Amino acid sequence: MDIARTPSTIDGNDQLADAAPQPKAPAIIRREDYKPFPWKVPQVALDFTLGLDKTRVVATLQVEANPEAERSPIILLNGDDLEPLSVKVDGEEVTSWTLEDEDMLLSLQSDRHEIEIVTEIDPSANTKLMGLYASDGMLCTQCEAEGFRRIAFFPDRPDVLSTYRVRMSGDAEAFPVLLCNGNLEASGTGEDGTHWAEWHDPWPKPSYLFALVAGQLVANTDSFTTMSGREVTLNIYVREGDLPRTGHAMESLKKSMKWDEEVFGREYDLDLFNIVAVSDFNMGAMENKGLNIFNTKYVLADEDTATDSDFDGIEGVIAHEYFHNWSGNRITCRDWFQLSLKEGFTVLRDQLFSQDMGSEPVKRIEDVRVLRGAQFPEDSGPLAHPIRPDSYREISNFYTATVYNKGAEVIRMMRTMAGEERFRKGTDLYFDRHDGEAATCEDFIRAIEEGAGLDLSQFRLWYSQAGTPKVSVRLEHTGDTATLHLSQDVPATPGQPDKQPMPIPLKLALFDRKTGKHHGEQLVTVNKAQDSLSFSGFAEKPVLSINRGFSAPITVERDVGQDELVFLAAHDDDPFARYEALQDLVVGHLKQAVDGALTDDQRDAARSAIAQALKAVLEDDRLDDLMRGELLLLLPSETYLAETMLVADPGRIHQERQALRAALGQALESEFAALHERASAVPFGLSAEARGARKVKTQALVYMAAGNPQRGKAMAWAQYQGADNMTDRQGALMVLTGLDGIERTDALIDFYNRYQGNALVVDKWFALQASSMHPHVLDHVKALGNHPDFTMKNPNRVRSLYMAFAYNPHAFHAPSGEGYKLVADVILALDPINPQTAARFVPQLGRWRRIEPGRSALMKAQLERIAEAPELSRDTYEQVSRSLG
Ligand code: B3K
Ligand code: ZN
Description:
By secondary structure, this protein is α+β, with helices and mostly antiparallel strands. The chain is 42% helix and 21% strand. The protein contains 29 helices and 31 strands. The longest helix is centred in the middle third of the chain and has 20 residues, at 360-379. Bound molecules: (3S)-3,7-diaminoheptanoic acid and zinc ion (ZN).
C-alpha cells in the first residue's frame, strides 16, 4: 500500500530513505509510468521435475513483438532468487543476456522467438511462501502478486497474458496427486517410481494466476451443472484425515456458482474446478484459474472444531475466490495500481452473496464494523492511500482494507445510485466489453457509466482521493419546513493536503416523533462542500435518520440529542440505522467519559439511558436473535473509539469501556441471566434460530462476567463443560480466559488436550489467550512464544499469537511500552523469514501520532529501532519508512 504523494513528499521520503542505513532504498513504482510490455508471450510451456529440495523448471516462452508497444530489442524477464542454468533462443544456447539486480535482460534479433530457460529451485528453503514452496510434505505455489518470478524468468506483470501447457513429473509415492490450472490432458508412469501429468489451460492468463500442487491428497468430489447445461467436476483436495470437514466448503462452492449465474449472469468456463487446502499460507486463499489454493482455515469445518463465524468465513472466502473467475481472471488488471478493479468488485460480490445466503442487515453491520475497525484507521494514518494508489515500493503492502473494503464500498455506492437493475446493465457491459483483457479501474467506471446511465465524472474522485469524508448534518425546523444543512470535509492525507468535494449518496428518512413512522426513504447525493435541502409538511420537528444502510463510507457528525438517538434506537425501521443510533449513543458517552468531562450524576444518567436502550433490545420481540446479537455487540471496539478521537489515551479508553460494560452487566443482570437460560435451551442446529441463540448466549455471558465475575465465571464454566459445539465452547473459553481462577486454568488445559494436533483449533487456543481481557496478557503471550507448538514459520500460528496480541489494545498499549517492544521484536525476527507477514505488523506501531504523548514516544522509538536494522525487506522497509515519514 502506498499514499498518493506529491512530488515533494516523494522526495522527502527518499531523503528519509537515504538517511537510513539501507544499502539502497527500494525503487518507487508509479502508476503514471505505465507502458505496455514490448513483447507478447502468447504461449508458455513449463516442465517441472519435482522434488521438495530440488525442483527443475524448464520454461519455454513463445514471444513476439507487441505491435501496440514501443519496440525493444531486449526482453526483460523478471527473476527473484533464480540462477539460470541454461538460456536458449530458437533452440541455440545463447550468452546475449545479463542479470540486472535479479532480472534477466535478453537480446532478441527479430520479431518472433522461442526462449527456453532452465532453472532449479529449492521449495523447502522457501520460507517466504511466495513462488513454489513445500508445506507439510507437499508442494504448492503462490504467485500473486510477484511470486512467479521465483519459479521462472518471465515478464511477471498482469498485462502479459499467455496460455500455459504444463508437464510435471515426480515421485509417485511422495506426490501421488499432480495438479495444475485448466484440464488434465495426459498422465502416465515414468521410471524409478515416478509418474507425470500434463495440464493445459485454454484461457490466456497472467503469470500471477499460475498454480501447481503436488502431494498426498484426497478429494471430496462433486459436480455442478451450469446454466447452459455443462457438467463441471468439483474437487476439494485435503490431507486424508481432513476429508470429513470439507462438506461445508463444497456446499458453499455450489451455492456460489449458482448465485453468480443468477445475480451477475456469470457461468463457469472449464470442465473442472479444483480447490486445495494448505496449512502454510500467507493469506486466506488464492483464485488461480481452475485451481484455487486455500488456507485450511477457509476450507475445513465441522461443528466440533469450527464456530458459526468460521462457517460464515468459509462461505464468504469460497465465494470470493470463485467470483474472481470473472472479476479477476477473465478480466484481469492492467497493472497492480488497478488492484481494486478485481478486489473491490469481488469483495462487493461476496458481500452481496453472503447477504443473500444469510441475514442481509446482520451482514451489512458486520461489514461496516470491519470497515471501521480496519479501513478507517488506514485512511486517517500515515499509510493512507486512495483505492487506486499512485505509487508503491512493494505491491504486497497494497492488499489493504482500503483497496478491498473501501473499494467494495465505492462500487456499492455506484449500485445504490443506479439501482440494482441498472447496475447489472453496467456490469454486463463491463464483462462483455473487457472479457479476455487486462483492464483498468477507468474501464470499469466507464462501463458502469454507460451501461447504468450514470454520470460518474465527479465520482471518479473516490478513486483518487484518500481519507474518510466527514459529513456534518444539522436539521432546522421553521413553520412546516424541515431544512437539512449538510457540509462535507475530506481530510488531508499524506501527499494530498487539499481535497475536492465528492458525490456522497445518502439514504435518509424523517420520522414523526408521535407516530414513530416516516414518510418514505429518500436518496440524496451531496456533491458540494455545503448544501441545504428542504422538506415541507412537518408541523413538528422530525427526527432525522441518515446514511441508512451505510449508503456511503463516511463519518457523520450529527447535531442530535441523546433523546433522538434513543428514539431512533427504538423506532428506526432500517436495522443499520438502529444499530448506528445505539453506537452513537455509546460512542458519545464514552468520549465524554474518557475526556473526564462528566460528573458522577451525568455518568450515571448516561449509563442508565444506555441500559434502557439495551433493555429495549433484549425485550423487542420483533428482533430475531441474530440481529439481537448484533445490537448487543453495543460497545464499539477500543480501536474504533480511539479512531474517533484526535489523540487517544488507550488506557482511559479501556478503563471506561470496561466500566460501562460492567455497569450494564450489573444493571441488567437478571435480564442477561434469563437470556442465557432461554438461549441455552435451544438445541444445536444450523438454522438461523439456533445460530442466533448461540450468538446471544455468549453475549449474555460477556455482560454477566463483567457485571458479576463470580456468577459469570460459574456460568461460563458450565457452558464450557456442557458445550456440544465449538461456538459455545470457544465463547465460554473466551470469557474464562479473561478472568482469574482455577476454571480458567482447567478450561485452557482441557481445550488444548482435547484438540492437540488439530492446528486450526490450537490456533484458536493461542489467539484466545493473546486477545483476552486478562490483565497479564503480555506475560501470557511471552510465555506462549516459547510453547513447543509455536513456530514463526507458519503464518496462521504467527497471526494467532502475535497478530491477536498486536490488535488487543489493552495489551499492546501496556504503559511500559513492552507491548510495542514485543511487536517490534516479532517484526525483526520474522522479516528475514516471511517479510510479507512481518510487514503486516507495522501499521499498529504506525498509529503513534494519534496516541497520547507518553506511549507515542515509545511506539516511535520501536519504529526507529526497526528502521535501523540492516537489510530490511522491501515490505517492512516501505511500511516503516512511511510510518515515520
Ligand atoms: N488475490 C489474493 C490475494 C493475493 C495476496 C498477495 N499478497 C486473494 C484474494 O483477494 O482473493
Ligand atoms: Zn480477492
